[in-house]
Amino acid sequence: MDRNTFTGLFLILIILVGSTYLMQPSDEDIKREKAKQTQDSIARLTKNESTQTIDTTQAIVKPPIDSTLLKSGPFGAASSGSDEPVTLENEFLKVKISPKGGRIASVELKNFKTYDQQPLIMFEGEGNKFGLSFGSAGQNINTNKLYFIPSAKSLSVSKTDSSSLTLRLTHSAGKYIDYVYSLKGESYNVGLTINTTGMQDVMVPTQQYITLNWESLLKQKEKDLPGEQKYSSAYYKQGDESVDYLSLTESETKELNEGKIKWFSFKQHFFSNVLIAQNSFDKGELSVTTSPELGTVKSFAAKMQIPFLRQESSSFPMLFYFGPNQLNILEKQGFDLEKQIDLGYWPLKYINRWVVLPVFNFLEGFGWGYGLIILILTILLKMVLLPLTYKSYLSMAKMRVLKPEMEEIKGKVGEDNPTLLQQEYLKLYKKAGVNPLGGCLPMLLQLPIIMAFFFFFPNLFELRQQSFLWMEDLSTYDAFFFLGFNVPFLGNHISLMCILMTISTLIYTYFNNQVSGATGQMKYIGYITPIIFFGVLNSFPSGLNYYYFLANLMTFAQQYIIRMFVDDKKIHAQIEENKKKPASEKKKSGFQKRMEDYMRQQQAQAQKGSGKKK
User: Fold this and answer.
1) Global pTM?
2) Where does a domain end: 276, 310, 341?
3) CA-to-CA distance for 244 and 114, rounded, in angstroms?
4) 542 with 477: CB under 8 angstroms?
5) What is the pLDDT of residues 297-327, one digit of tens each?
6) Contacts of 363 (CB under 8 A, 6+ apart)
7) Are 226 and 278 spatial neighbours (Cβ–Cβ below 8 Å)?
8) 402 and 375 in one domain?
9) What is the per-residue pLDDT across 365-393, written as a single tens digit (0 to 9) for each?
10) Do the Cβ atoms of 377 and 550 come closer than 8 Å?
């Protein structure tokens, strides 16, 4: 290479190096370019969000967002954190709140135990979830997976105090969601207010609702798991409608779109988890599923829509109730929560609510044991019903005295003409001044009270874990004999109190047949019915069987005393006197009039039929 060529190449190299150095952008130019790129990205994202409609309802059922994506997306800083629980505690409750999801992770009722004397935990474990769902930046956010920052590590409240705790989920500066929990002394309530700040810029522009998801898997708390499942379901109050509930026996999902929802409840037999909205949920969905898992009562799920007004700050106050299904406690909560307790259909619920329960509460005030209270309650009711019992016995005694004459009529007329036979019987009743239904009507009037107890005892919280004699818990069956295997209609046990109740009913039936003179099918039906009820009531509360047993014993005593004052000879003499009276002096009962009219119609139809044949 000659000197001229080398000189030319050297000058070209100097020019390239110099131009590169001189044309390099300054630090200010670099900052301006980066800012411009960021603004362009935000503009493109906003444009995509405004032109695309995100279905948040469908988003709820999508798989959870990968935590690696969250770190670079909305609430990225909340994708990890400490999960050390925060404890809220008062005289009645011990509540543990998990920073993950900011949710109530477990609730212990401090004054109650399970059937095996373990701490009574309303719910706990991974099967329980609570969080908000909404769309943001093209993603579906579920706060149950994100970590909140608590304002304190624990909170203990005395009898007269109240306090609050805040857990915050931060999106960015000035944009966050707060869960504010509040607790008072001697209360089963936990307040929860959801506050949002700056979230109108975070959620997608089409977002009008935030979906609140609550799932709970409730474990066994009573000895009789099938019985506990029978009385457990999801309850709710919608608009001005009465309290309603999902199926007690089958799995069910129900859409609630016909009115604002004031509250809903995950109810077990004797305890409830209730969420009350101060401003009501706009709409929602409830579901209940009977779980095949051993020791699990049922699983519950709720999806409720909270209105989102797209303001700088908004608030949605709510109130939890974690406590017993005891009528007076639920009534103090308001909102018709006490209607979760099934006191029977009309008119049974009115008998239980306004007659039986006030008497029971009055006796409870003396501080007696519940076995004695049931005894006194039975005595009082039998005293009130004594006039009906006396009238029933007297009527059956009259029918017994007339039985020889009825047999004589039956022999003359025969059984081939039942219409004529009934007419002759009615003539005899009319002459004797006897109402054949006089013994049945008083029993029918007593039947609603007997049936009312069928609902009263199984749902009476006060009997829970109360013992009497060999019965360890009056609210459930007394398993005096364990069979070791399941028998249809009986289960795997035999209840001693149910046996005593059945035997006493059979003895009562025997003596009742002696009084009434029942024969034929009616006689045997009286013996079959107690056997059927033995299969039905074997798994019912021992307190209910105890009441029926006492009622039978007291009926024996009443009939024995009545028999001392009722003489068959005097009844027969009175009947003979009635026969001598003119027909004009005898009053016909409504039954007799209807039967005579019916017999005349039957006889007229029979005559028409015979005329046509001729």
Assistant:
1) 0.77
2) 341
3) 28
4) yes
5) 999 999 999 999 888 999 999 999 999 999 9
6) 373, 376, 377
7) no
8) yes
9) 999 999 999 999 999 999 988 888 888 88
10) no
CA dist., res. 179 & res. 177, Å (int): 7
What is the CB neighbour count within 10 angstroms for residue 141?
28
Cα separation, 90 vs 419, in Å, equals 75
Write the DSSP assignment of 524-577 as a string of letters.
Answer: HHHHHHHHHHHHHHTTS-HHHHHHHHHHHHHHHHHHHHHHHH--HHHHHHHHHH
Residue 219, in any domain of the structure:
yes
- N-to-C CA span, the chain: 151
Query: Do residues 422 and 273 share a domain?
Result: no
Q: Please tell me what DSSP assigns to residue 105.
A: E
Q: In sequence order, what DSSP letters do the residues of 106-157 get, joined into one string?
A: EEEEEEEE-TTS-EEEEE-STT-EEEEEEEETTEEEEGGGSBPEES-SEEE-
Q: How far is CA 98 from CA 25, 81, 87, 179, in A?
A: 51, 11, 9, 12
- The domain total for the chain is 2
**Alpha-carbon gap, residue 103 to 219, rounded angstroms:** 19
Q: Evaluate if residue 21 carries a pLDDT over 80.
A: no
Amino acid at 227: G
Q: Specify the 3-state DSSP secondary structure of 261.
A: strand
User: What are the helix and strand counts (H, E) for the chain?
Assistant: 17, 22
Judgement on whether residues 407 and 460 belong to the same structural domain of the protein: yes
Range of the domain at 92: 69-341
Compute CA 193 distance to the chain's CA centroid, rounded to the nearest angstrom.
Answer: 26
